[in-house]
Each structure stands twice: as structure tokens, then as C-alpha cells.
Amino acid sequence: MQRILAADIGGTTSRFGFFELHGEADEPHLLSIVRLPTQGSDSLVALLELLFSEQRPFAVSSCDLAVLAVPGPVQGRFCRPPNIKWNIDLYDITKVGLSRGALLNDFAAQAFASRSRAVRDAHVLQASRADTQVTAGGTVAVLGAGTGLGHCALVPDGRGGHLAVPSEAGHVAFPFVGDTEHAYGEYVRRITGLAYCHGDAVVSGSGLSRLHAFLTGEVLTPSVLSPRLANFPHTVEWFARFYGRAARNYALAVLALGGVYVCGGVAAKNPMLVTHPAFLEEFRLSPSHHALLSGLPVLHNTNEDSGVFGAALFGAQRLRRRA
């Protein structure tokens, strides 16, 4: 038996899953999940010290591998998250007694989660169609709006496992269509000071608030707007269309014949943003690939803990190959 600490370090909340790995073919077994506020700690070391300040299913000394899924580009052992005040250096885990670790992008963990029990209750937004060349071994596209707009693709590695291909597509310029949408883009640039309007500023929690302010003149934080969103169908329709556009563009970019998974806290708290007809209408809209897009399976993963399951699955794959 081997033990894995799987962490999903978020801009707002960090989730830590304690897992045991029992057999070659088995998925890691979850013992418990602990959720801590990320900004309540001033470093990764402080966050880990807080985690282990109470009794956990296993101690740091008996952890075989710590896998940290982090919100930003991973450069070897280091990550500088854009939405966290402190950097993440894998070396720092040794300061709390963890001897072996791995870093991966948080959406790489979400991609691995698409092959775990974390998505068994995912809501089907669009079923696969028989005349589409969907394949279980095809590339899977995962994207999700939260603090930003995350993306990752998961591809077979030819050895029975998977390889996550991280992306920073949320920082690519967002494609607006028509005069009114372009006016909104200029509004976002003006109030944010951005050189160009990217996906993180549009399809995200803060993007939802900006869109609502543009359409209604009412400035509300995401937490205040969310429970009232059903009262603003115009805001919902616009955001659903933007979300569907982001999903379509990424599905085409990676040719996601294995399907598309939508995740992230924004839609988890507001499912109407992906169940609204505008989402799939925009997703399928293509002058050349409408038939392909209409046949791809599109699922909404509402499990906000799925990142820890994905990190654990990545960890299990690494431990087995080093055994």
C-alpha cells in the first residue's frame, strides 16, 4: 500500500485529499478531503503547516508522494500563480517533512479527473452521436471558469496511461463578434487596464460580474450576483454564449474526439450558465465543423473536489512507473 497527498491549490480555496493506493489496477482510495482558505496563509509552507496542525489520516513521514496541482504554468519544480500572492516551489514541501513530490497545473489535474470516479455524476449537456468519430482513446478537452478560465487536454500516452497537455489559453485574446460585443470588450479593457481582453477577464467569476455591470449598470460581486442570477436572463444568455464559444474554440484547437468536460466553480454554483440553450448553440456554431461539434459528448462536471482526484490519479501513475 502507498499513500498519496493530492492537493488542488486554488486562488480562493485549497483542497487536500488523503489517498491510499492498494493495487495495480485500482484507482486511489480517498480517505478524506480537507479544505483550507488559500489566502489565509502567507506561503505554501504555512498552508501545509496549517494542514498538518491537526491529526490527519496519515502523517507526513508516511506519505509516499505529495502531488500539488497549482493554478499557473509549471516550470520544473516552480510555479508563479497569477492569482495567489506567493510562489510555489516544490522544494518547500521538505520543510514540513514531505520527502517526495510533484507539481502539475491545476487543469492538468482536472484533465486526469475526467478519467476518475470524480466525474461519475457529471451532467450530460450533449450526448455523443453515432455518426461522429468519437473515440474512448481520443483527446479530451477540459476547461472551466473559476477565478480564471483554465484549459487542459488529456491524450493517451501509448503505455496504458495518459499525458496532460497544459494550456494558458485563458490568457489568449477573447474573440468577440459584432459591434455590441466589441463595445463590451472595450468596456472590459477600460475598467481593467488590460492591453487586450482575454478569456480570464470574460469567462470567469469576475467576468460574470463585469458582464452584468455592462448590461445592467449594477455592480455586484460574484458572491452577491450568483444567488440572484436567475433574475437576469440577459446576463445568463450572454455569459452562456461566451462560455460555449470558449468551449468550441478549445475543442477544435485540440480536436477533442474524446469529449469535452466543463468544470470550475462558476458553473458549479450557476448550472444555468451551461444548461442555457445559448451555450450549445454557440458550441455547435461553425461554418465547417458543425456536424463534428454537434456529435461530441459535452459533460458538466459539478464536483468541485475533482482536482484532488485527478492529482491522485496522476500520482498513482507516477508511483506505478517508478515501482
Provide a descriptive summary of the structure in words.
The strands form three sheets. This protein has a six-stranded mixed beta sheet, with helices on both faces. Strands 3-2-1-4-8 form a five-stranded mixed beta sheet. It is 35% helix and 23% strand. The N and C termini lie close together (12 Å). It has helices at 44-51, 106-113, 178-192, 199-202, 205-216, 222-225, 233-254, 265-269, 272-275, 277-284, 290-295, 306-322; strands spanning 2-9, 13-21, 29-37, 65-70, 74-75, 78-79, 88-89, 101-105, 123-126, 140-145, 149-156, 162-167, 259-263, 298-300. Helix 2 crosses helix 12 (306-322), helix 5 (205-216) packs across helix 7 (233-254) and helix 7 (233-254) runs parallel beside helix 10 (277-284). With 323 residues, the protein is α/β, with parallel strands linked by helices. The chain folds into two domains: 2-106 and 305-322, Nucleotidyltransferase, domain 5; 122-300, Hexokinase, domain 1, CATH 3.40.367. The protein contains twelve helices and 14 strands.
